[in-house]
Amino acid sequence: MSMTASHHDLDLDALEVLSSGAHTVAGSAVRTCQAITGSVALATCNRFELYLDVDESGGRLTELATEHAAREIAGLVAEASGVTLDEAVSAFTVRTGQDAVRHLFDVASGLDSMVLGEREIAGQVRRALETAHDAGTTSAPLERVFQHASRASKAVAARTHLGADGRSVVSVALDLAERSVPPWRAARAVIVGTGAYAGASVAALRARGCTDVRVWSASGRAAEFAESHEVLPADDLIEALGDADVVVSCSGTAARTGDSLDYLIHAAAVVQARARATARAGDLPEARGLVVLDLALHHDVDPAVADEDDVLLLDLAAVRANAPSEASDRVRSAHEVVARAVAEFGEREALREADGAIVRLRARIEDELVAELARSRRSFSTEADREAHERSLRRFAGALLHRAIVRVRAAVREGTEPAAIDVDAILEQVAG
To answer: Of 168, 269, 288, 325, which has the fewest Cβ atoms less than 10 A away?
Structure first.
């Protein structure tokens, strides 16, 4: 079973609050919910997901059991994050069975990302499992589904090359900005925010050769972030904007007042910053232009900024428009790879569930073999004849078991529930 809150439905600010207790929720779910035997939390900058192993009699989750488990987990999320229970319940999309498996495989392969094919998520999925494993909250079924999801991700990368160019929200945005900024080694960048996107922005800027990177945060965490990422803190936003060639805003903490937003970067602030830059330039060549990248789901930047001369404003809509689309051949191929991987995993799990029937078959054949050997023991005049007869019977029993196992697996592949397999009927069929 999975519970998903993501960029499809929530803004970054809401996701950040919701996932603030992500790692404690995974442990609490196993400790406090009797039916939950395993839990893995996947928390990234634009999604918070919980994957749960729910022990339900009969092997399939009922609608009532699903609803109960989801509400229990939502309660833990609400307690850890400070949101109300109703807010937590409404934030999540709940999936079970193959739907949950398919979603995880899509996520791991970058097919549920804001930029289709992004590769960062594959590592995040892998680390989520490692964290749960180290914390002792995972389970054998969760281990298997996450491992197979990672394999599907690798298959997508190898067979379709989707994401081979390393595309992500930040990289696509910087690619769009590149045409309007100086060469990256000479460019001056300002990052607004200190979350996961901010860290990804620092890495992406450095990969392009940009070394003059400053960070500003309305929360006051700029100094701490700057020290940990080896960049410079900016105390004054307007001063930082005046010196910048490119601004990456990824806070998502703009406040809403009624129907309006109190933006982190106002048009007036940009006007003031540009005026300072122009004044400092004096008789020098005119002040350089400014590119502002608003990467927050909940806009950080006043749209009126785009009306200023020499200022280019790009938001997530522009990023999406320049990312691979669902209609691209690579994306279609990736979906086909994932579909095959999901089907293969489902078949493997069904066959695993059939192990009980196979154990019963083996035990029944072994009992019959032992009984027959006991009955025929006195029928042979020499030990050699008895041993030859036993070898013959054991070969026959092995062949019988093999044919029976083939029948069981064929029945499971055709949709028969393992618990409904009639061992006696199968033995009659293969013996006849």
So the answer is: 325
